[in-house]
Specification:
heterodimer; A: 96 residues; mainly alpha; two-stranded antiparallel ribbon; 31% helix; B: 493 residues; alpha/beta; 15 helices; globular
């Protein structure tokens, strides 16, 4: 039985950059605990000497020449931005 | 001739080539059907002008005599595919207003083959769900109905399945991360194939879990699936995991001959509490294949029961990483900020407003299993179990098994809202027969095989060897014609 406490739930929400009001933390902690309980079944499996899967279809990644293949699309890139000014994405202040 | 929107791709192609019907007429028939089907909430963004423009171009191409099979075929496109200049928001509030400047490779290939886009189709938010109820647009509704209840079309490709089953389009695109093509196909009496991982380019498809996601066609018949899949497949330099392998002419390989094929029946798929009807359907499916000359072999896939828990570690982990890009800076929704809010508050408020409940839950569980101290206990362990799940299949195929027959879903379509009080794991059980296939990267297809006692469709799943979609489609077509499933939902919408 895995128990996610309120502090852990708060920490996970912050790591995921999702605002969760304090009153919702107990429900979140309970849901996360439920999911982790479900995952606990994996502890029954003998995984000694088994490699973790990195690629489901064994294939070598293709290589290409290291060159510029794209660019000069500023207007297109900014076209969906919630706030774009003077050719940049605009965001609230990042440093104090 | 019945209404044009009721045609299959195969029938429409032949009529288009003979000049007996025009792409414009086909498209108008579908647009009319869509207009009359608001209650199904399948189409969520409509593109009638673009559709007619493409249909006219298709007619010109057909007249010139040089038209590929998909030319002039009206399709619906799942909202997960980025379509140039057309809203593409993965059924999420966080992509509200997003209009891509580019076209996904798969939808571009269909466009270049002359296919007509009718609009975008409803789905679960970011493809996370099995009932289409996590969509920001509200749920799509299954055209199949047996009592007062509205039923789910399944998910996540629920809008695609509902649209095809209700003849709003000739076929649709879907995507499948844990069963999102095959489960809705089974719930709506339609055909859906998830090809081998790497067959279809993922470029331009909003990413959920990159090591599991694959696009595929959702159609009225297996032959249609063969035709449309061929147009969707192929190597794409923009997706480094797309396979540089020749794409066969899947339709030409539908020989109808499966004599001598060995079909595996995995004993671990006989789940406790499985409805007797599903068990009986499964046995009948095996008999049909035996009658067609296949050999039925009992096999064991011992790690099956660990597939769902492994999936619910791996998929949320990948999702938490993929969905980190939705930060309110480059596209989509940005929360209104309070005086003095900095960038962290902007991220946190934007993501809290933009993501629905299920997406938030999965992103957070993914964040947890990837966080320091838990990575080995959860994520790495799940990846090792994934290796074992794939090995189970490899060992079965090594004994000469050509395909594996299983039920597609543990039940027929359930009522919308019926799972609201259940814990999330209950909903995840919908994928119990399909999720192994994604973990192993294999091709899988759902074929309608009968009706249950209520009169709702049930599907069977066939799982093939990697890259052998052609053989898989051939076996599926034999099953399809033996089952003789011809029922259609009665129009109530």
């Amino acid at each position: 039985m895995s128990e996610i406490d309120l502090d852990t739930a708060r920490k996970v929400a912050h790591l995921a950059r999702i605002a969760v009001p304090d009153e919702n933390l107990p429900a979140l902690a309970q849901e996360l605990s439920q999911m982790l309980d479900f995952m606990e079944q994996l502890n029954e499996v003998d995984i000694d000497g088994v490699d973790p899967m990195t690629s489901v279809t064994p294939m070598r990644l293709k290589r290409r020449r290291d060159g510029v293949t794209d660019g000069d699309q500023q207007a297109k890139i900014l076209s969906n931005a919630p706030d774009a000014r003077e050719g940049f994405f605009a965001v609230p202040k990042v440093v104090e | 001739m019945s209404a044009l929107n009721r045609l299959t791709i195969t029938e429409a192609r032949d009529l288009l080539r003979k000049g007996e019907v025009s792409a414009v007429a086909l498209t108008e028939a579908c647009l009319g059907a869509i207009q009359g089907a608001g209650k199904l909430n399948a189409f969520v963004h409509h593109t009638p002008d673009l559709a007619l423009e493409r249909a006219k171009a298709a007619d010109a191409r057909l007249a010139s005599g040089d038209a590929p099979a998909m030319c002039g075929i009206p399709l619906g496109i799942k909202d997960l595919f980025c379509t140039q200049g057309v809203a593409s928001q993965a059924a999420s509030r966080i992509l509200d207003g997003f209009k891509p400047q580019y076209e996904s490779t798969v939808s571009a290939q269909l466009r270049d083959a002359g296919a007509v886009i009718l609009g975008k189709l409803n789905m679960d938010e970011f493809a996370m769900g099995s009932s289409n109820e996590t969509s920001v647009y509200g749920n799509a509704v299954n055209p199949w109905k047996v009592d007062a209840r509205d039923l789910t079309p399944g998910g996540s490709s629920g809008g695609s399945a509902a649209a095809v089953a209700a003849d709003l389009c000739l076929a649709a695109t879907g995507t499948d991360t844990g069963g999102s093509i095959r489960q809705p196909a089974a719930f709506t009496g339609t055909v859906g194939i998830k090809p081998t991982y790497g067959r279809c380019s993922r470029w331009g498809i909003v990413a959920f879990a990159s090591s599991l996601d694959q696009a595929g066609p959702m159609t009225k018949t297996v032959r249609d699936a063969a035709i449309m899949l061929e147009a969707m497949c192929g190597h794409d330099p923009k997706d480094s995991t797309s396979a540089d392998l020749p794409v066969p002419d899947f339709e030409a390989l539908l020989t109808g001959d499966i004599r001598g094929q060995k079909i595996g029946i995995p004993r671990e798929y006989r789940m406790e509490g499985m409805p007797a009807e599903i068990e009986a359907l499964w046995a009948r499916g095996a008999e049909m294949l035996r009658d067609a000359g296949a050999e039925i072999v009992d096999i064991s896939l011992p790690h099956t029961k660990y597939a769902l828990p492994a999936y619910y570690v791996i998929a949320p982990a990948e999702a938490s990483s993929n969905l980190a890009r939705y930060d309110g800076v480059r596209y989509g929704h940005r929360a209104k900020l309070a005086l003095g809010d900095g960038i962290t508050q902007m991220y946190e408020k934007t993501r809290a407003e933009g993501f629905g409940h299920e997406v938030q839950r999965r992103v957070m569980i993914g964040t947890y299993v990837l966080s320091a101290g838990f990575y080995d206990a959860y994520y790495n362990r799940a990846r090792k179990v994934r290796t074992l799940i794939k090995r189970d299949f490899e060992q079965a195929f090594a004994t000469g098994i050509d395909a594996i027959l299983t039920p597609a879903t543990p039940s027929s379509a359930f009522g919308l809202g019926e799972m609201a009080e259940a814990d999330p794991v209950q909903m995840y059980l919908n994928d119990v027969f399909t999720v192994t296939v994604n973990l192993a990267g294999l091709p899988g297809i759902a074929v309608p095989a009968g009706l249950d006692a209520q009169g709702l469709p049930l599907g069977l799943q066939l799982i093939g060897r990697p890259w052998e979609e052609a053989a898989l489609l051939n076996t599926a077509q034999v099953l399809e014609s033996a089952a003789g499933f011809v029922s259609k939902p009665e129009k109530w919408w």
